[in-house]
Specification:
The protein is α+β, with helices and mostly antiparallel strands and 373 residues long. The protein has helices at 2-10, 14-28, 32-44, 48-61, 65-101, 119-133, 137-143, 157-169, 179-183, 303-317, 327-334, 338-341, 357-372, and strands spanning 109-114, 150-156, 174-178, 186-195, 200-204, 212-216, 221-238, 244-261, 274-279, 323-324. It folds into 3 domains: 2-82, Serine Threonine Protein Phosphatase 5, Tetratricopeptide repeat, CATH 1.25.40; 104-181, Ribosomal protein L7/L12, C-terminal domain/Adaptor protein ClpS (Ribosomal Protein L30, Chain: A, 2-Layer Sandwich); 184-372, no CATH class. It contains 13 helices and 10 strands. The strands form 2 sheets. It has a 7-stranded mixed beta sheet with strand order 6-5-4-9-8-7-10, with helices on one face. A 3-stranded antiparallel beta sheet has the order 2-1-3, with helices on both faces. β5 and β6 (212-216) form a beta hairpin. 26% of the residues are buried. Keywords: Coiled coil.
């Protein structure tokens, strides 16, 4: 009957081949020839991954040298077919990207963000991701995030949207954003909150001119974004050979909290969506609203104490507002894209001895959260 199966497959009569194998399987399912023709039928039907796995199993388990040779030939055929398909897909993709990149509006710089995937779905997603990004499955799995966003690729926004479309069809969560989209929100660096009821009046100082105020309702706040930015210090250390070494160490962290305001055209001073930025080293706690709930003990409060009380007050006022606090994990991938970060202006007026990409990374993270909402 195996000759009949082979003839049916050769004639592309796959239904007959399957029916014959079903009959054989009732009595002879442990026979290596039965397992070989199951793999051969899967190969003929273009179930290549399944056929490849079955051929490899035969290489490991079959004592029959002829079956081993045929299984090896099957693996080679599948590899050659996959290589041809890959080259064809690559050529088609290059043609599509060349056309996209020539169209107006697609040449702006952009980024592609991968969103977290549950571990139980990663194996299937990794196979699809590997095919789209031309990676091996193991490397593809390592690239897919489990907990936080991953800044995966930069380039023309047309190209990023193309990959987003492919990944979305493969059920791999992701999104893209162009540089103009990222930059469109205005940021107000708040010096202090002058009042908090019935509306919030926040005092900020623009780059030029005197202090100004912005007024908004708590109901306009849709998200909070928190992060810690390292403050670096250069120091001299002595190594094991008692030689002087110049090192950069983390001295402290800046605590930053962004409030995202959705546009409310009825508000006098907030005619557009914007970001209200609070950070501990910039906030003038001695001015405006006193957020301390305890009586003053006479001991001077630290900036850390004041910042903690301000955050407790925000928690009370915004109990239902989602808080994004995964910036530092996101930064681990974002810091690899220095050229993109150079295009992001960080609205954190901090005098640093030298620039650091951490400030731009937080700026990017907060703005992406706003876009993704």
């Amino acid at each position: 009957m195996y000759n009949d199966v082979a003839e049916a497959i050769e004639n592309q009569d796959y239904q007959s081949a399957q029916e014959l194998l079903q009959q054989i399987g009732k009595e002879d399912s442990d026979n290596p020839w039965f397992q070989f023709y199951i793999a051969r039928l899967d190969e003929a039907r273009a179930n290549l991954a399944q056929a490849h796995q079955q051929y490899r199993q035969l290489l490991l388990s079959s004592p029959n040298p002829k079956i081993v040779a045929l299984a090896r030939q099957g693996i080679n055929r599948i590899s050659e077919l996959e290589d041809r398909e890959l080259q064809i897909a690559k050529a088609q993709r290059q043609e599509i990207l060349a056309k996209l990149n020539s169209e107006p509006g697609n040449t702006e710089p952009g980024i592609l963000i991968l969103e977290p995937i549950p571990n139980e779905l990663k194996q299937k997603a990794a196979l699809a991701f590997a095919k789209i990004m031309n990676l091996d499955p193991y490397s593809a799995r390592l690239q897919l995030p489990s907990r936080v966003w991953r800044l995966y690729r930069t380039g023309n926004i047309g190209e990023m949207r193309y990959y987003q479309e492919l990944l979305t069809k493969a059920e791999i969560p992701c999104f893209s954003a162009s540089l103009p989209e990222i930059k469109r929100f205005q940021v107000y660096e708040i010096k202090y909150l002058d009042s908090v009821s019935p509306q919030v009046t926040a005092v900020y100082k623009p780059k030029k001119g005197e202090s100004e105020t912005i007024t908004f309702d708590w109901s306009m706040v849709t998200q909070r974004v928190e992060g810690r930015l390292p403050i670096f210090e250069e120091c001299i250390d002595i190594d094991a050979k008692r030689q002087l070494q110049r090192k950069t160490k983390t001295l402290d962290y800046i605590q930053v909290c962004d409030l995202h305001l959705k546009a409310n055209w009825g508000a006098e001073r907030v005619p557009h969506s914007c970001i209200i930025r609070l950070w501990d080293q910039n906030y003038e706690f001695q001015k405006g609203v006193n957020f301390s709930s305890a009586q003053h003990t006479g001991e001077p409060k630290t900036t850390s104490d004041n910042w903690k009380q301000l955050n407790q007050y925000l928690n009370q006022q915004l109990p239902q507002v989602p808080v994004w606090s995964d910036f530092n994990h996101f930064a681990e991938t974002a810091l690899d894209f220095q050229e993109m970060l150079k295009l992001i202006e960080p609205h954190i007026t901090l005098l640093r001895p030298e620039e650091t990409p951490w400030d731009a990374a937080f700026e990017l993270y907060s703005r992406l959260v706003f876009i993704h909402e």
